[in-house]
Design goal:
Radius of gyration: 21 Å
Strand order of the largest sheet: 2-1-3-8-4-9
CATH class of the largest domain: Alpha Beta
CATH architecture of the largest domain: 3-Layer(aba) Sandwich
Number of strands: 9
Largest sheet: 6 strands, mixed
Shape: globular
Number of domains: 2
CATH topology of the largest domain: D-Maltodextrin-Binding Protein, domain 2
Structural class: alpha+beta
Mean pLDDT: 92
CATH superfamily of the largest domain: Periplasmic binding protein-like II
Helix content: 25-40%
Number of helices: 17
Distance between the termini: 29 Å
C-alpha cells in the first residue's frame, strides 16, 4: 500500500459531458430536510486524489457551487488511498483533523464512536432517491439502526481484456465460469499473451482474491463472526489459485494497484482485473500504440465459481463526518448538497463510469449507456459482497481487511511458498486475532 498512482494514467476528463441524466429515471420523491448550518462554519475535507480527471474537476466544481450557495468555505485536500486510511485513523484517535473524510471499504468501522451519527441524512437521501443498496447498509449501518457514514459508491473491479487476443486463443466470448476462465488463461499463456492480476498488498486490485475464495464457497467468517477460513472450500480455491498463477506474467506477487494498469497498457498482459480507468487511459492517451487498443479493450464480470452465484468484490467508498468537528450541521449540509441529483448526476458523468452509485435512482444516469463498455460497471455497488462476508462488519472485519489476510493467503498458496493447507491455517490464526471470541 506504499503507492497508488492509477491517476497517472488519466490526465484528461472522461468524454461524457455533464447534463441531465435522469431520462427515464425513477421518480424523485419530495422530502423535507431541516438543517441549519452553524454560523461562521468552515470545513476541511480529505479525499483521494483523482484517478479520472473528470472526477476531481466535477467534484471541485460542486464544492465551489456549495460555497457560493451557503457562504461556507470548504478546503479540500487530496491524498492517495494509501495515505487517507492512516491519516483518517490518526485524526479519529487524536480528535483533530479534517471535518469530513472520504475513505474506503469499512474504515468507518475501525472507529464508529468517533463519527457523527448521520442517520437523519441517510434516511432523507434514501427516501428521496429510491433507497440504498444492501451493501451500503452492511458497511455503514452495521447495527441495522444507526448510519455511521454516508455511502458514496464503489469503484467496480471487472475483468479487462483484449478481445483480439482472447479470440486468438480460441475463445469467442469471455468465459462465464471459473473452469472456462482457467482454460482461457492457459491458452493465452501458450499463445504468448498471458494475463496477470495483483497479488501484492493492493488496496483495490487485490480484491479479486476475495472473489476467488467466495466463488468456491470459502468465507473468512460465518454469520456469527466465527472464523472459518481454514475449510475444504478454501483449500479448493487455493488449489485453483495455484493453477491460475501458473498462467500469470512474472512479477504479480509484488504488484500494487498501479502495476496491472501499466502492464496492460504496455501490452504485457491481455487480461487483468481493474476499474474502468484502463479503458479511459487508452482513450485519452497520446501514444498511438496505446490509442490502438481502445476498440480492442472489453469488460466482463468475474466468472462464476462452483457456488453458482456471482461473488463480486469491489472497492467501496464512504464519507465520514468526524465527531470532533465544530461544524457537524455544516458538514451534513455539505454531504447532502453533494449527493443531491443536480450535483451527483454531474459527478457520476465526470467520473466516466469509474464510480458506481450507492442510491438506486442513479442507475438511470446516462453514463451507463452512452458507451456499452461502461455498462458492466453500473451495478458494482448493487452486487458487491462486503469484505467481511458473511459476518457483520465492525472493528474485526475492518482490521482483517486492512491486514490483507485473504490476499496474502492466496499469494502464498498460488506461488507455492506454502501449501494450500498451510496458507489457510496461517490465515485462520491471523483472522482469529481480530475476531476474538
Amino acid at each position: 500500500m506504499s503507492q497508488y498512482k492509477r491517476r497517472e494514467f488519466l490526465k484528461t476528463t472522461a468524454g461524457a459531458t455533464a447534463g441531465a441524466a435522469f431520462a427515464g429515471a425513477p421518480a424523485v420523491h419530495a422530502q423535507t430536510w431541516n438543517n441549519q448550518p452553524e454560523k461562521g462554519a468552515k470545513l476541511r475535507v480529505l479525499r483521494w486524489k483523482r484517478f479520472v480527471q473528470g472526477d476531481e474537476d466535477t467534484y471541485m466544481a460542486n464544492v465551489k457551487k456549495f460555497t457560493a450557495k451557503t457562504g461556507i468555505e470548504v478546503r479540500v485536500d487530496h491524498e492517495g488511498w494509501e495515505d487517507v486510511r492512516p491519516k483518517a485513523a490518526v485524526a479519529a484517535n487524536v480528535g483533530s483533523g479534517p471535518d469530513v473524510i472520504l475513505s474506503t471499504n469499512d474504515d468507518a468501522n475501525l472507529y464508529p464512536d468517533k463519527l457523527v451519527d448521520v442517520t437523519d441524512l441517510c434516511e432523507y437521501l434514501g427516501k428521496k432517491y429510491g433507497g440504498w443498496y444492501a451493501s451500503c447498509e452492511a458497511y455503514l449501518k452495521p447495527d441495522g439502526k444507526r448510519w455511521i457514514g454516508v455511502p458514496l459508491g464503489s469503484a467496480g473491479g471487472m475483468m479487462v481484456y483484449r478481445e483480439s487476443q482472447v479470440k486468438a486463443a480460441g475463445f469467442d466470448k469471455f468465459p462465464r465460469d471459473t473452469d472456462g476462465f482457467l482454460k482461457m488463461m492457459k491458452a493465452l499463456k501458450e499463445k504468448g499473451t498471458p494475463g496477470g492480476m495483483a497479488l501484492g498488498n493492493a488496496t483495490g486490485d487485490s480484491g479479486w482474491t476475495s472473489w476467488l475464495i467466495w466463488a468456491f464457497g470459502g468465507q473468512m467468517v460465518d454469520k456469527n463472526n466465527k472464523v472459518i477460513i481454514d475449510s475444504p472450500e478454501t483449500i479448493k480455491a487455493l488449489e485453483y489459485a495455484k493453477e491460475l498463477y501458473g498462467t500469470f506474467v512474472p512479477g504479480t506477487l509484488s504488484w500494487l494497484d498501479p502495476n496491472n494498469n501499466k502492464a496492460f497498457l504496455d501490452g504485457q498482459v491481455s487480461v487483468t482485473n481493474n476499474g474502468i480507468s484502463v479503458y479511459y487511459a487508452a482513450k485519452n492517451s497520446q501514444d498511438p500504440k496505446v490509442k490502438e487498443m481502445v476498440n480492442d479493450i472489453q469488460h466482463a464480470s468475474f466468472p462464476i465459481g462452483p457456488v453458482g452465484v456471482p461473488t463480486e468484490s469491489h472497492l467501496f467508498f464512504n464519507q465520514m463526518i468526524m465527531k470532533y468537528t465544530k461544524y457537524p450541521k455544516a458538514a451534513k449540509e455539505f454531504l447532502r448538497f453533494m449527493m443531491e441529483q443536480e450535483q451527483f448526476d454531474a459527478w457520476l458523468q465526470g467520473s466516466g463510469g469509474y464510480v458506481s452509485q450507492p442510491l438506486k435512482a442513479y442507475e438511470a444516469n446516462k453514463i451507463w449507456t452512452v458507451d456499452a463498455k461502461h455498462t458492466p460497471y453500473r451495478d458494482a455497488t448493487k452486487n458487491l459482497r462486503p469484505a467481511g462476508y458473511a459476518g457483520k462488519l465492525g472493528y474485526a472485519s475492518a482490521g482483517a481487511l486492512a491486514d490483507f489476510i485473504i490476499a496474502n493467503m492466496v499469494a502464498e498458496a498460488a506461488s507455492g511458498s506454502k501449501t494450500a493447507k498451510e496458507a489457510a491455517e496461517r490465515a485462520q490464526k491471523r483472522a482469529e486475532r481480530y475476531y476474538k471470541v
